[in-house]
Amino acid sequence: MDEWIRQAEVWVGQAESWIRQQPPEQIYIAAAVIALTILVFIAASCLKSSKSNTIVLSGLSGSGKTTLFHQLRDGSSHQGTVTSMEENNDTFVLNSEKERNGKVRPVHIVDVPGHARLKPKLDEVLPKAAGLVFVVDAQDFLSSMQDAAEYLYDTLTKASVVKKKVPVLIFCNKTDKVTAHSKEFIKKQLEKEINKLRESRNAISSADISDEVKLGVPGEAFKFSQCQNKVTVAEGACLTGNVSAVEKFIREYVKA
Amino acid sequence: MLEELLIFTRGGLILWALSGGGAQASPVDALIRSGLLEERPADGAGFSLDGKRALNWAFDNGLGLVFVAVYRRVLRLLYVDDLLAAVRAEFARVYNPKRTSYDGFGDVFRQLHLEAQARADEMNKFKQAPIKPRPPSPVPVPLSHNDVPKVPGDDGGNDGESQQGGSDGESGKEENSGDPEPKDGGAFNLGILHRLRIKVIPTKDINNVNGNKNNNKGRKKNKEKEGTHRKLDFSDPVDGGKVTDHVVVKKGVQGQSQVDTDENVGDGPKAEGWFSSVFQSIAGGNTVIGKSDLQPTLKALKDRLMTKKVAEEIAEKLCESVAASLEGKKLGSFTSISSTVQAAMEEAILRILTPGRSIDILRDVYAAKERERPYVIVFVGVNGVGKSTNLAKVAYWLLQHDLSVTLAACDTFRSGAVEQLRTHARRLQIPIFEKGYERDPAVVAKQAIQEATRTKSDVVLVDTAGRMQDNEPLMRALSKLINVNSPDLVVFVGEALVGNDAVDQLTQFNQKLADLSAVPAARLIDGILLSKFDTVDDKVGAALSMVYVSGAPIMFVGCGQSYTDLKKLNVKSIVNTLLK
């Protein structure tokens, strides 16, 4: 032990004499560079830990996510869309806010394909999300109700969504069509379906090792208000440009 | 006449459509869902949606664009591939990621269309003399953004070859156009694999010969047995007559069925870190992947897949499809071609194995319960794959979820099948509906379902006899059973040990079910149960072959011979095992 201490003292002495030998400017410069690097790292980590500005658009295939994406970005849905094979990923200033004066913070929006085979893509994006918009086809709702509920259930029980309390907006799209259902109806139906799913999935047991979070309160019917993260419902129509509900949601969670 | 030509990004936005405004995207949507996302390679015949229209497509991987042409199938336009290649070259010059409308392209397209038609007419004139059938040549390598595109006139020689390749594909398709085509993925699979089978004749013949031998033996044995079968029928009479054995079997409580345990497989280490992504953005990749660069890596991957017992045709088509999606793509710096190809292949296999629809059986059972009908599952497959054993495992799993199950013994052919099922029923303490041997399975099934409805049973599991896929009378009987009873789920039980035969089994089953059904909307195989999975260590290729051929998801995996050995497929672990 003493050996070590003595060795250390010798080394410290050597270092001191070496430093004394250097011209003072070099030492100042070296110290300044080190301080600067540390400052840069601190600044970078500060910026990173601030709220991310990513909003994820998800939903079943054909519900209108890509149309919504383009409506938010360019203000028009161009010539139409087909089933997406890849995600649409862009950072931009919302189209409706382009005319605003002053600094407007750009928003990073990711439109994840809704096709069942491309579900793993959603898992890659969710951890970075500050908010989630779940797009539902209000016109064709009844036939796709079960699949939509299952998708929503899977999303709401992911640990990354619940732990970070990611807010979810259920956006009922295509309300410009005559046969579209109202958002209250859709909300109730989704709650019912998720309740059924809850019962069938939680009917087993203890051997469940998945990271799923149990939804709702046991013994009571499921309501969106029971979720730990905030879930709201809104309606609109992407083709006609009525997306103000989504924009409000985005602005609420990605501060300008 | 070309009905429609769409240019769209991989993210889904339509950039240009031939028919201007009211572009009908629904045939293209169907193409994307069943063709492109399932990694079907593009070939000369094109994808047929509903028998009336055919679609051909081309990718521009460097820019992330897809070009699709829709035309009436009857017309067999031969210049479509040529036209797509020309359109791709021209559009690449005009394309700008920021721009979303390309109205000026209409004139360019009209000109290209005329040129392509002219070239096709010329080729037709030259085809007076008989020409040796040549294998379809590859589509010309797409030009990168920076190169000066070839003058269309120079393309004449090159495209002439692909033209013939295309026309050979067309003539091959003509022979099969007589087949009645079932809807959806069925048509596409069968068309392609029919043609492939013409190439792969040696192995097919062996299979056929074996099948025929089995048939002959089976028939002879049937005739011999008829005289003596009365004596050998030990089945207990149904109306509670003399019971020969009084063995009381204790209900086997064996613990948790493994279906409900969730396995988490971590992803492999991600190659891209912050460091390499920074360098990529600075250095920028400029090498464009060409077809020759891909060949060695793809060949190595294909061999690796085949050592994992993936059927040869499937491995070939998968490699073709991955090559098509990578050609022309810019190679990132600090990433080698082999790692890019590996990543693309991994993604493709992941996409194929991920189910295209929900496979939550419990939810469907509850839905049927609300409608006060039992949920009927029929197990089909060839001889000896484990239908009865896995049926019992599924029954055990359903029992654990507090559902009432009834077994239906519709295997009225194999000696001991009814007893086997009866023993399972006794151990699990569930009712079984049986009518002994030598009865019409379709009738037995119908009565079983009626009985189950009466006793308010939740699920009916129907066991059928194993049959070879090319045994016509037995397949007809199976088709009748399925169509008469319209089950909620038709599960094909396939064993994991099978190799190339899986492709044949599944295609034939689906085809026979479609052909021999009396109703136009035939029921095909809805799901696959992969049995004997514990006997293959890492040679898990059968899973990929079966899913690729049929498009049906793997619902269960049987991994042992006791009641609890039933699992759900862990897609990530299979992908890792296949590409290790």
UniProtKB/TrEMBL annotation, chain A:
GO MF assignments: GTP binding; GTPase activity
Pfam families for the chain: SRPRB
GO cellular component, one term: endoplasmic reticulum membrane
Main localization category: endoplasmic reticulum
Keyword Nucleotide-binding: yes
Subcellular location: Endoplasmic reticulum membrane
Family membership noted in the UniProt record: Belongs to the SRP receptor beta subunit family. Belongs to the small GTPase superfamily. Arf family.
Protein known as: Signal recognition particle receptor subunit beta
Organism: Digitaria exilis
UniProtKB/TrEMBL annotation, chain B:
GO cellular component, one term: signal recognition particle receptor complex
Biased composition (Pro residues): 132-141
Origin superkingdom: Eukaryota
Subcellular location: Endoplasmic reticulum membrane
GO biological process, one term: intracellular protein transport
Signal peptide, first to last residue: 1-25
Record membrane topology: Peripheral membrane protein
Annotated stretches, region: Disordered: 128-188, 204-241
Pfam families per the UniProt record, alphabetical: SRP-alpha_N, SRP54, SRP54_N
Database matches in InterPro entries: AAA+_ATPase, Longin-like_dom_sf, P-loop_NTPase, Sig_recog_particle_rcpt_asu_N, Signal_recog_particl_SRP54_hlx, SRP/SRP_N, SRP54_GTPase_dom, SRP54_N_sf
Keywords annotated in UniProt: Endoplasmic reticulum, GTP-binding, Membrane, Nucleotide-binding, Receptor, Signal
SMART domains per UniProt: AAA, SRP54
Major subcellular site: endoplasmic reticulum
Protein name: SRP54-type proteins GTP-binding domain-containing protein
Organism: Digitaria exilis
